[in-house]
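Async update (no meeting this week)

Hi team, since we skipped the sync, here's where things stand on the single-chain job. The sequence we agreed to prioritize is pasted below, unchanged from the tracker. I ran it this morning and attached the output directly underneath so nobody has to dig for it. Comments welcome in thread, and please keep replies under the output.
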Amino acid sequence: MASDPSVRHARARFFSDSGFSADGGYEDDWAEAAFGPVRYRVPNTPARVAALRRHDLHHVATGYAADWRGEAEISGWELASGAGVYPYAWLIALWGLFTGLVHHTGPTIRAFLRGRRSENLYRTGATVEALLAEPVSVLKARLSVLPADADPWSERAPLSRAGDVLALVGWSLLSLLLGVLSLIPAGMLIALAWRPALPSLACPLRCSGAAAIS
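Output:
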């Protein structure tokens, strides 16, 4: 494989590694998802697909996987770098941040701080087709993505660090509120799904064996 593959090639590899269909399932009427051991199906609405097409390229740019930890990390990164005019992305990223703060606190916070130094594709007018033709290195440069092992606070001024902390606290409180409000309906869905006589239920999440948008 080329040392700097196209975004299209890298996305295909991401789909394969994550167990997704070769076309990403963008044209499907329904999308498969999971919440832990519970399988779900969700209507594949135009709003979901529009956000998902760009979200998947964020995975390519950042290197975050499509598992519980990776989706928590990408959620923190997306919220910190700005979700633009994609309400679906805001909602799912908030849920992902909530799960990350509970189960993968350190990596999620680090990803959030990394996102504070980045841009994202929810706030650009570039089309997905144009982005797919770029080398991955160009996509990373476009979004100012820090290397995965870089210290996101390196050479960060004290005032900027304070802004990072305030942003993290604000988004965390909002995500915790959403998470708490979601626990009751989520618990009911899980309880019902364990009944063998019932079919799979619907939920706005997709992941390779984990709960999150991907």
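Quick observations from my side:
The helical segments are 7-18, 46-62, 68-81, 87-103, 105-115, 128-132, 136-143, 158-193.
The first strand starts at residue 30 and ends at 35.
Reply here if anything looks off.
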